[in-house]
Amino acid sequence: MQHSLPAIVCCLLFDFISNAFEIEPGFPTACGISAFPRTFKYDATRMKVPATPNSWPWHVGLWPQRAGYFPFCGGTLISDSLVVTAAHCVHDAIGCRNTPFEGLIDMTITTDSALYVLVGAHDYTTADLSRQLHRLQFVVIHPNFTEKFEDKGYDIAILKLAHRITPGKLGFL
């Protein structure tokens, strides 16, 4: 049986992460199902259109304390305290170049600038009561990731939030 490289990487990362953290109770079994009704937008078949507010509540923004007012990278919630994102986003935020990262990286001591995950925001330029800003506690970067191999399937990282997101505010947990 032949498996694709991304599937193998995901299995290896989830095996590693499950040994690093206790998987949270209530881990979703049905991914990508929003509590908000989906509507067909004809314009979306021809051009870029704004998403329906809060229709993708598992999408998050990565926000380093030192880098401005808006998130610079995105990620996806895979539980109420775990996010999957691109390794280069975390690597850039840490600020070290050509440094191999192995195992669990404690973000509270690794960098002088905190890295946050912005959850529940539809428009980053406006205030919204459902937004939640969470500091990262730990990061696991794929062990084969390097800046020069971003196109080889290893550009992936798992982020552990310092605190779980507040259930119910986002419409899917």
TrEMBL record:
Q: Where is the Peptidase S1 domain?
A: 23-173
Give the keywords, sorted.
Signal
User: What cellular component terms from Gene Ontology apply here?
Assistant: extracellular space
One biological process term in Gene Ontology: proteolysis
Molecular function GO terms recorded: serine-type endopeptidase activity
Q: Which residues form the signal peptide?
A: 1-20
- Signal listed as a keyword: yes
Pfam families in alphabetical order: Trypsin
What InterPro entries does the annotation carry? Peptidase_S1_Elastase_sf, Peptidase_S1_PA, Peptidase_S1_PA_chymotrypsin, Peptidase_S1A, Trypsin_dom, TRYPSIN_HIS
Q: Which residues cross the membrane?
A: none
**Gene3D superfamilies for the chain:** Trypsin-like serine proteases
Task: Quote the PANTHER family the UniProt record gives.
Answer: CHYMOTRYPSIN-LIKE ELASTASE FAMILY MEMBER (PTHR24257), PTHR24257:SF17
Q: What is this protein called?
A: Peptidase S1 domain-containing protein
Which species is listed as the source?
Schistocephalus solidus (Tapeworm)
